[in-house]
Design a protein that fits this description.
The complex is a heterodimer of chains A (257) and B (188). Chain A has 257 residues and is α+β, with helices and mostly antiparallel strands. Chain A contains six helices and nine strands; from the N terminus they run ααβαββββββββααα. In chain A, the strands form two sheets. In chain A, strands 2, 4, 5, 6, 8 and 9 form a six-stranded mixed sheet that branches. A three-stranded antiparallel sheet of chain A has the order 1-3-7, with no helix packed on it. The longest helix of chain A is centred in the C-terminal third of the chain and has 40 residues, at 177-216. Helices cover 33% and strands 37% of the residues of chain B. In chain B, the strands form three sheets. In chain B, strands 1-3-7-5 form a four-stranded antiparallel sheet, with no helix packed on it. The longest helix of chain B has 28 residues, at 151-178. Chain B starts with a helix and ends with a helix. Classes of the chains: A alpha+beta (257), B alpha+beta (188). Strand 7 (122-131) of chain A pairs parallel with strand 10 of chain B, so a sheet runs across the interface.
Chain lengths: 257, 188
């Protein structure tokens, strides 16, 4: 009997502690958040709409999933109304996403506004085009295309028509300014090198020529063109130094005398 | 037990089949001007592209664009605005081009062309192409001012410039002819 009362008391105490914990209010309000997320996800596709997607330019993008930067990328979206009510295709939004995390937007493109009414049992083709920027060259990105449309009752639907990782390649087919200027720079460098080497070589040859001349030089007296020198100046010179030979020669001549 | 396993396998296989089932022919139709400028009394090239993105061929495909180019404002130079193709196989495409000539200048709304096709000889489909939208048809004179070769302008320019260039050259020739001997002496 005593043991049973102890157990009962213990159980009561445990319950009280547990209740106190609950009353503390440490449990966060997770439930409403989840329901909100669910609300966001409820905008989906309509069962009466059939959509198709096709790249027109570049034509092999449907298979190889590659674009080139700086070249137009064009695609078509087909919308088929299989139901009994009109649909209005409002717009299509295109965006580049991070390839490993598609919730991270790298670039949002201008959305294509269509506002095309599609009667029951009819189809409509819509087109859109964009350029991939050079900064995306050589890396994969996630291309996501969503089509937003309404039915006659005003219900909004969103269809994802393309959601793939694509490779963006650098366009190296045409003339690129970078390589062009590199080429011009190299040409200029080689011309400069030629000029410098020519200069150096001519300097070398001139030096050797000078040394030779120094050895051979014997004065210019024999080659003087006297027509250019005034008469009196020539006479004065003759008076002052009649001998045109070098001082060494003169000395030797005196000795001989 | 074995039976239930088989049943499960069947369910799985049928689910996969739903995912990869063949789609009927689905034609995407594309209308696009190839000329950069639309000019009155000059050729304007339009291209229509049909892409069958379904898994089955599309039968008896027609393009009808007669309503978007009324003959009182457009001449059809080459090509047909109503074309018929017997079949477009799955995954292939067809392009068709037309040369037209606008008769008047001003804004013009390029609307959608209508494409019809059959899947399985029974289901008739009507598709509208994309709309290139509103475009401006240039006046001929405006276009010439920007792009035509300007021969008359050059001729007038040379006539205006003639007194100062040709006139001075003639004067120089006259004065040169007046002194033939002096020039000879100098050269010798």
């Amino acid at each position: 009997m005593k043991l049973s009362t102890v157990f009962l008391l213990a159980a009561l105490g445990f319950c009280a502690v547990y209740a106190a914990d609950v009353v503390d209010g440490e449990v966060t309000d997770d439930a409403p958040k989840n329901s909100q997320e669910d609300d966001d996800l409820t905008i989906g596709a309509s069962p009466d709409a059939g959509l198709a997607f096709h790249f027109v330019q570049p034509s092999d993008a449907n298979v190889v999933r590659e674009f080139y930067t700086g070249k137009p990328v064009k695609y078509l979206i087909g919308f088929q109304n299989k139901g009994e009510k009109d649909f209005v295709v409002k717009y299509a939004e295109t965006s580049f996403r991070f390839p490993t995390d598609h919730s991270y937007h790298l670039q949002n493109f201008t959305r294509g506004e269509y506002n095309r009414r599609v009667a029951p049992k009819e189809e409509v083709t819509l087109d859109y085009g964009f350029y991939a920027h050079e900064t995306f060259a050589g890396r994969p990105v996630g291309l996501v295309v969503n089509v937003h449309y309404q039915d006659a009752d005003g219900n909004v639907f969103v269809n994802n028509v393309y959601n793939q990782t694509i490779n963006i390649m650098e366009d190296d087919s045409g003339f690129s300014g970078e390589t062009g200027f590199l080429f011009i720079f190299f040409v200029a460098l080689s011309i400069g090198g030629l000029y410098l080497s020519n200069q150096f070589l001519s300097k070398l040859s001139r030096k050797s020529g000078l040394s030779k001349r120094r050895v051979v030089e014997q004065g210019t007296s024999s080659e003087v063109d006297f027509e250019w020198i005034p008469r009196d100046a020539v006479k004065n010179k003759e008076k002052r130094s009649p001998a045109t030979v070098s001082p060494k020669a003169r000395k030797s001549a005196k000795k001989a005398d | 037990m074995k039976f239930s396993l088989f049943a499960l396998l069947f369910v799985v296989v049928s689910c996969v089949d739903v995912g990869t089932q063949t789609r009927d022919a689905f034609i995407l139709a594309h209308k696009q001007p190839l000329s950069t400028y639309a000019v009155e009394n000059m050729d304007f090239v339009l291209e229509y592209g049909l892409y069958n993105v379904g898994d089955k061929p599309a039968q008896k495909v027609t393009i009808d664009d007669r309503h978007s180019f009324p003959t009182n404002s457009f001449d059809i130079v080459k090509g047909l605005l109503f074309v018929h193709f017997e079949q477009i196989p799955a995954g292939s495409n067809v392009t068709h081009s037309v040369v037209i000539r606008p008769r008047a200048f001003g804004f013009f709304n390029y609307t959608a062309a209508q494409v019809t096709y059959y899947t399985d000889n029974e289901n008739h489909h009507v598709t509208l192409t994309n709309t290139p939208g509103e475009g401006y048809i240039y006046r001929q004179r405006e276009y010439d001012r920007r792009f035509a070769p300007k021969y008359t302008y050059f001729l007038v320019f040379f006539l205006i410039v003639a007194p100062t260039t040709l006139g001075s050259f003639l004067l120089f020739q006259q004065s040169k002819a007046r002194f033939p001997n002096v020039i000879k002496k100098k050269s010798t």
